[in-house]
Structures are given as structure tokens and as C-alpha cells.
Specification:
This protein is an alpha/beta fold. It is about 50% helix and about 10% strand. A hairpin with a 5-residue loop joins strand 5 and strand 6. Helix 1 runs parallel beside helix 11 and helix 15 packs antiparallel against helix 16. The longest helix has 30 residues. The two termini are about 45 Å apart. The model has no long low-confidence stretch (mean pLDDT about 95).
Length: about 500
């Protein structure tokens, strides 16, 4: 009947040495413990049982860098140790009506922490990103990359910086994994025909991307998300999210994780930090919620996985009956949904694939694998769009972020001018130029305006954005100063120790 592709987009803002708790490296610790390490366990289990080319994992260069960073991995070990210590506190903190249930949960969380610690200790040949790439080399999954610092590409004003974002993203992928990515995740699924994005991807050797369903459906030509299409006259293929399927798991208004047996994400014990309640009902206050029961939640996840597998099969069957052709269903999510936001998500994913194995009419493949199975499709003139709340740029652009976008526009223009002026300078100033470019590109991360408008942590987002502006200003001052070249190199390296993304970056690449 057709092909199903699950795409998991793995990305966090660059938090290394930029705050710890409650905002900063804590973001990475929680995502690694609850999503990345459990997902690795699921994928390795599937690979050991013979599953091949099951899905596509997108690793943004920023998250891949942090997954491999020695400092981040050391801090993650410390976080896991503290996590297990907190389970001991939970065993003595409760003397109320649910004391037995919460003590049982403490034992559950202790086992969970030890399992993730063992998983982390087993990564002897690199970090977490290397473990995902090892699965790709086994043929179990596909790993794709992304632009260097996760910018909203249609809003990058300087063409040279947009090109650098895509090319340096491919270069960083090759540095980490020994090969350039065949596919990329467009940050926020953002596309605009005026930005020439497909040309940038073509030049970087990128063959396929994901766009949101409405972007494809609003475009000229056959209005369908069931077939990959080449973008204009490029060789880049766009695969569109099928929202009817995708939103069954998670949507702006609900999905499986709102089920009554699942762990409630939003309520936690303020002293030890554990989430001890189940959803019960999304309409009930915490005073009316019931204690979390892991076994019942896992049973619910398996039942929902079977329901989702049936939906995929039914959707492909309906398409084939109506069109006479096999279809391609793409469901794409943030990786962090599975485990961090939806604690039972990894159980759901494993059971989904084991259920689909018993559904021969549905072939589960990565994007790359699906494109090998499906016939070549006609080009499409994509319109502008994103996977934001209104399918445009309003989750990033509003009055509240005007100051950020104005500042970024100034920095982008000045960065190109300064790079041209000092390109032939000595090695110290070239080190400052490279750091200047890093700070400008970190300002371009789509995370900062999104956090201001939609994601919470407003103060942290503004502090980070304008902190990178301050470091950019510092590099400008160094470049214009009469300080000896070797001293400039030392001062630039001090900033690099904090913001060491794209370590191989050369000013000549922009």
C-alpha cells in the first residue's frame, strides 16, 4: 500500500557553558536522560532484532556538537548521579495518603537513572551523536544534518551568511561523522521561494528535506502530501508532513500524550523535582490528579502504538484506492517529544515498529529509503511556510522580537563588511574574525525569538541573544584595536572557550 517515514528532529539551543539551572545546561541534561539515551536503547534493540532503515534522525550541528562535548558529557554524568540521589530523598519526603505510591515511584526512577547511566557508560567510542551515527552505519536508521546554528533561513538577510549556514552545517556533519549529510532538516520547516534555499542545499550536496504539509498543499501542482517532489528545477526533494497522521500523536491541541494514564509533564514535586502524577484529566487541577503508575502507562503506550499503526495503514490504503498509486506518509516531530515531554514515548516508538513489522502492506523506511522505493515525482513550486503555529513566521516575528531582528540585521550586514576588510589580516585577527562569525551565527538561532514568543524562558532567551551581541562587539573592538596580534588571539580564544561551536570554522568559508 505504501511507505511510512518517521522523522525525529533533534535540536536544542547552544547551552554549553551558558547557564546551568533552571535555564542552560539543564535543558540538555533532561533531554539526554529522558529522550536521547532511552531512544538509543530502543533503536539498538530494534537493530539487534533485524530492523533496517527504520526511520530518519535529524541531528542539528549544535546538538550533535554538545552530544560529543567532553564538558557536557561530564556534567551529564554528574546530573545522573544527582538524579539517583534525589530518588533517595523521595523515599523519605512523603508521609501522606500517597506515601506508598510515591516510594514505589522513587524506586522506578532509581532504576531508570541507573539504566541511563549504564547507557552513557557504554558509549566508549564517542558521545551520544556518535552512537546514533553507529546505528546509521549498521543500516538501522538514517542520520541527517542541518544548517550550522539552526537559523530561520528565510529571514537571513545576507545571502553569504545563508550560504555559510548550509555549507558549514554540512562541513560540521562531516567533521563529526566522516561524511556530508545526504539530507537536512530545515529549521522550523521554514521555506521561502525568495530565499533560494533549494539552491543553497543543491550546492552543499543535500538531496532531501522536510517541509510542513500546508506548505506543499498551498503550492502549485498536485495538492498532496503523499508524494515527494523536487523543489523547482533543483535536485532537492521535499517530503511533506502528513498532518492528519502526525497530529494523532501530537498537535497544538492534544494527541496521545494527553491520555489519562500518562505521566503529567507539567506538575512535579518542588523539593525533589520528580513528576509523580499522571494526567488523570487535562482539565483537573493537581489536587485532583492521581499518582503515576508506570505499568499502566506503558500498557497505554503500546495500545496507542497499535492504534497509530492502524491509522498509518488505513491512510495509505485510502490513498491507494483513491489515486491508484502507492503513497508516502511522513510523520515528523521533535525528538524531545519522545521521553522528555511524553515520558512513555520511547515505549510507544518501539511497539510501533514491532507492530508495523506485522503489517506487511506498510513499509517503514527512512526518507532516503522511501525515495529509493518511490518513483521520481514532478517538480513543485513551493510557497513560503513553516511548521509554526500559524504555518508562517509569526511564532518568531512579532513586536516583542522587533529589537532582536533589528539588531541581528545590523550584525549580519556588519559581519560581511568586517570579514571583507580584515580577511588578509594576521592569524590573531583571523581568530577574532572566526569568533565574530560564530557569535553572529549564534545570534541567528531561531530558538531565541521562539522562546520569547512561544517557548517560555523569555529572560534567558534575551540574555543569550544580546550576550552573543556583546561578544560580537568585543571581537569588533579587538579587530579595530592596536593590540598585538598574539594578544588578540588569546582574547579571542577566551571567548571561544565559551562558544566553541564550529571549531574548524575559517573566515574564508563565509
Amino acid at each position: 500500500m505504501g511507505v511510512f517515514s518517521l522523522v525525529l528532529h533533534t535540536h536544542l539551543p547552544y547551552v554549553r557553558r551558558n547557564g546551568v539551572w533552571p535555564s542552560g545546561e539543564e535543558f540538555f541534561h533532561q533531554a539526554a536522560v529522558e529522550s536521547y539515551l532511552p531512544l538509543l536503547a530502543v533503536l539498538e534493540s530494534l537493530a539487534d532484532d533485524g530492523f533496517e532503515d527504520a526511520l530518519t534522525i535529524g541531528l542539528s550541528p549544535m546538538i550533535a556538537h554538545q552530544m560529543e562535548d567532553a564538558h557536557m558529557l561530564r556534567e551529564l554524568e554528574w546530573f545522573l548521579g544527582q538524579y539517583e540521589l534525589r530518588t533517595l530523598r523521595q523515599t523519605t519526603n512523603y508521609e501522606g495518603v500517597f506515601r506508598h505510591e510515591f516510594r514505589d515511584l522513587a524506586a522506578h526512577y532509581a532504576r531508570f537513572a541507573r539504566a541511563q547511566g549504564d547507557r552513557l557508560d557504554s558509549l566508549t567510542n564517542g558521545g551520544i551523536a556518535t552512537a546514533f551515527e553507529a546505528l546509521a552505519r549498521r543500516g538501522a536508521i538514517e542520520v541527517i544534518g542541518g544548517p550550522a546554528t539552526h537559523p530561520y533561513l528565510p529571514l537571513v538577510r545576507e545571502p553569504a551568511l545563508a550560504r555559510a549556514q548550509v555549507e558549514l552545517g554540512a562541513v560540521e556533519h562531516a567533521r563529526l561523522f566522516g561524511r556530508r549529510p545526504a539530507g537536512m532538516w530545515l529549521p522550523e520547516c521554514a521555506y521561502s521561494p525568495e530565499a533560494g534555499i533549494e539552491g543553497l542545499l543543491d550546492d552543499a550536496g543535500v538531496g532531501h528535506v522536510v517541509v510542513d504539509g500546508p506548505t506543499m498543499l498551498r503550492s502549485a501542482g498536485p495538492r498532496s502530501t503523499f508524494a515527494p517532489r523536487r523543489i523547482r528545477n533543483s535536485s532537492v526533494v521535499a517530503c511533506a508532513r502528513n498532518l492528519d497522521v502526525t497530529y494523532r500523536v501530537w498537535s497544538p491541541t492534544g494527541g496521545y500524550p494527553t491520555g489519562k494514564w500518562y505521566r503529567d509533564f507539567f506538575h512535579y514535586d518542588i523539593e525533589v523535582g520528580f513528576k509523580n502524577w499522571r494526567v488523570t484529566s487535562i482539565r483537573k487541577p493537581v489536587s485532583q490528579k492521581r499518582p503515576y503508575e508506570p505499568a499502566r502507562a506503558e500498557a497505554a503506550a503500546r495500545a496507542d502504538a497499535e492504534n497509530f499503526a492502524a491509522l498509518i495503514a488505513r491512510t495509505l490504503e485510502d490513498h491507494e484506492r483513491e489515486s491508484g498509486t502507492e503513497g508516502h506518509v511522513v510523520a515528523a516531530y521533535d525528538t524531545e517529544l519522545f521521553g522528555h515531554w511524553w515520558y512513555e514515548g520511547p515505549v510507544f516508538l518501539e511497539h510501533l515498529y514491532r507492530t508495523l513489522r506485522g503489517t506487511p502492506e506498510v513499509r517503514a523506511r527512512s526518507l532516503r529509503g522511501a525515495l529509493e522505493l518511490l518513483p521520481e515525482q514532478q517538480p513543485v513550486d513551493l510557497v513560503a511556510g513553516s511548521w509554526g503555529l500559524r504555518k508562517d513566521d509569526r511564532s518568531w516575528v512579532a513586536v516583542e522580537t522587533d529589537e532582536m531582528w533589528q539588531s541581528l540585521g545590523e550584525v549580519e550586514a556588519d559581519t560581511i563588511r568586517i570579514l571583507d576588510k580584515f580577511r588578509d589580516a594576521g592569524p590573531g585577527r583571523r581568530a577574532a574574525l572566526a569568533q565574530l562569525a560564530r557569535e553572529a551565527m549564534l545570534m541567528q538561532s531561531s530558538d531565541w525569538p521562539f522562546m520569547v514568543l512561544r517557548g517560555g524562558n523569555v529572560d534567558y532567551a534575551r540574555e543569550r541573544f544580546f550576550g552573543h551581541r556583546d561578544r560580537w562587539n568585543h571581537m569588533v573592538e579587538l579587530l579595530r584595536s592596536r593590540i598585538p596580534d598574539d594578544l588578540i588571539a588569546r582574547k579571542a580564544n577566551e571567548v571561544f572557550e565559551v562558544d566553541n561551536i564550529l571549531p574548524a570554522l575559517s573566515p574564508d568559508e563565509i
